[in-house]
Amino acid sequence: MKIWRPGITAKLFLAILTTCIVLLISMHWAVRLSFEHGFIDYIKRGNEQRLQLLSEALAEQYATHGNWLFLRNNDRFVFQILRSLEHDSSDDRPGPGMPPHGWRTQFWVVDQNAQVLVGPRAPIPPDGTRRGIMVNGMEVGAVIASPVERLTRNTDINFDRQQKRTSWLIVGLATLLTALATFPLARGLLAPVKRLVEGTHKLAAGDFSTRVAATDADELGRLAQDFNQLASTLERNQQMRRDFMADISHELRTPLAVLRGELEAIQDGVRKFTPESVASLQAEVATLTKLVDDLHQLSMSDEGALAYQKSPTDVVSLLEMAAGAFRERFAQRGLTLTLRLPESATVFGDRDRLMQLFNNLLENSLRYTDAGGQLLIGAEKSAGLLTLQFADSAPGVTDKQLAMLCERFYRAEGSRNRASGGSGLGLAICVNIVAAHGGQLHAAHSPFGGVSIKVELPLDRDVSRDV
User: Fold this and answer.
1) Which parts of the chain span the membrane according to its record (predicted)?
2) Band of the pLDDT at 93, cuts 50, 70, 90?
3) Which CATH number applies to 8-154?
């Protein structure tokens, strides 16, 4: 048997409805208590006033007659006095012991010996309201009324019951209206949450193209915008991962195919096993080794696993050392290497990783610059930043190719292709190294017709302050 578990909409609906019901019942009892106390106080004050008037009227009659003989067994006389006091012209006579209109209790008239002169046969309540009948300073009798809390008239009892029924009916109707208003309110408030829940389920199932409508400008609206941004990032990362795997398989397939063909040719006797064939095999193995090394370096830099031992480092001296190591290779290809550097520029960085950065950039220009071209390395300091410029000559790239130049495994068409021996990972590794030093790397068109790589690194603050 499946147990029903309320959802968030039902919980919110029940919470609001329960709160409203508690408030309604509390208000009902508060109003009832206020009404009952007010109603009884009203009757009590009226009866006390009437008792006082009745005692004064009976005192005048006693002074006139000199005794209570006129009142014994003469209830009608008392009620006539009461009607005259109430200014009531009705001839309806109440039942025995019952007061006329305006009274809400039973009353008794007793003499000085506490003998009942007028009143019902019921015993006189000890807690009744008593008013003495005073004649010439002496108490010759008293008027006693039953407690106001004891409603005796049917109209009073019916009125009290009617008020109770009406108040409970109001509570019931208010509860129904609250339920009718609360349910759509709860659904409306939780509609964005439901959309987020459904979108999260789709996202968890691998549907990274899902999006939710961010119609509101409140916290839920901002949460929906963040959800859409997360979905976009996951979708982009998924596509990049697929492309990455496809690129790796493509990069590995070519040298492996060449190796297999060379080895099969030697095995079949089509090609002799000579030092030249061995050199060809070694070249393909070197290509595979370079690709694997670059992949390892890229994965390490992506995960932040590369060890960075930072200290104040003079970038100018590092660039001069890196350029000196490449100068002979540049000269062999007929390329001119020019440096325009300041005397010094200190950054807080890792010497080995920065040297790896410069070697990758120099290797990139060496591979992809036509013979007879040039590479200009410049550096400028401004506003706490060191800006390095690696600008080479033709061939250049288009704007579309330029935007993709730092992506993994990307190589532009033309001379900047696989024939140059590159893996297409050098610039991606450079981007990670620069980011680890708090800088940025950008690719732009070179004034010499090739590509210009701009590297911005923050200068070491302590050294800059001392200077």
Assistant:
1) 12-31
2) very low
3) 3.30.450
Helix, strand, coil distribution of the chain in percent, nearest 5? 55, 15, 30
Give 316-362 pLDDT, tens digit per residue.
Answer: 999 999 999 999 989 999 999 999 999 999 999 989 889 888 988 99
Q: Are strands 336-340 and 374-382 parallel, antiparallel or unpaired?
A: parallel
Strands of the sheet containing 336-340, edge to edge, are 336-340, 374-382, 385-393, 449-458, 440-445
For residues 426 and 414, give the distance between their C-alpha atoms in angstroms, rounded to a whole number: 18
**How does the average pLDDT of the chain come out, rounded?**
78
Whose tokens are 């006091």? That residue is: 85
Report CA torsion sign: 94, 100, 102, 103: negative
Tell me the sheet residues that pair with 110.
116, 142
pLDDT tens track for 7-24: 666 777 777 778 888 887
Strand order in the sheet with 138-145: 116-118, 107-111, 138-145, 129-135
CATH 1.10.287.130 fits 219-302, yes or no: yes
SS3 79: helix
pTM of the model: 0.46
The enclosing H or E element of 251 equals helix 219-267
Choose among 40, 32, 35, 36: nearest CA to 129. Answer: 40
Ordered DSSP codes for 212-223: -----SSHHHHH
What token pair was written down for 117? 């002169």
- Whether 268 shows a pLDDT value over 70: the answer reads yes
Domain with CATH 1.10.287.130 in the chain: 219-302
Q: Where in the chain is the domain with CATH 3.30.450?
A: 8-154
Whether residue 192 contacts residue 221, with contact meaning beta carbons closer than 8 Å, is answered with: yes
